[in-house]
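Progress against Task 2.4 (sequence-to-structure conversion) is shown through the following example record, which the project officer requested during the mid-term review.
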Amino acid sequence: MIGRDNDVYRPSDRDLLKRAIRETAARTGTGVFFAGLVNRTELTITEFFGTMTHGLKNLSVQPGEGVGGRALSQARPIGVADYLDSDRITHHHDEAVRIEGLRTMVALPILVGGHARCILYAATRERTSIGEWVVNELSAGASRISRELTIRDEVDHRVSILRVVDSVAAEPPDRDLVEAVRLAHAELLSVARITDDPELARRILAVTAQLEGSGAAPAGSPRFTRRETDVLAQVALGCSYAEAGKRLSLKAVTVKSYMQSIMAKLDVHSRTEAVVVARRLRLLP
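Structure tokens generated for the chain above:
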């Protein structure tokens, strides 16, 4: 069921960087932008906008090296007015910067849990200020990426819990395991509704569909809409209508309306009955 690596479900993090620098370039209409992911402690620059050469392509930057390496090691934005002449940075990568003809440069770390996971750069080919509005746009992009990476990491954590299901499928039911699966299922549904990445949401819902036992419900069982399943999964955790609404970005009155529809479909008269019957019909894990 869940025996594949989490990478199957996680969209490319590089695409987040690519989109961020393109959106920043479109909003500011100026400058050179590039970015890269951090693998443990090493930064590799892979995404570019406005460059004219391949001098920076796949450049590896260690903590403390140049502008990006210093931003990586100090976990804060670093900028220089003239890269090649600056005495504030090391000059490990002067040749790559010289080939591209860059002068002014700023590097912003994208932090998740206090650690730099990516670095975004803005640069110019003239010795001039990059501009506060450019830095602000880059910072906004970094914040969006940080939030999305946090969500993706949480999805990975939940999926890792679910990967044990296949390995114990033939064993007698374990109450703790069942509860862990149910919690992960509800959490994944909640994350799918708050992420800004439609591809990630699609992949999360593919996982939850497997947990719900697609096609395993007895013939003649009622069918829930996607939103009804979302709501019932949260209610099954013991969430109030207000709590379920907060987790799914819905109003409490809307959650109540969905639950009324669910109870009518299941021909029950309480939320508790709805959860019990839905599980018996394999409409919830």
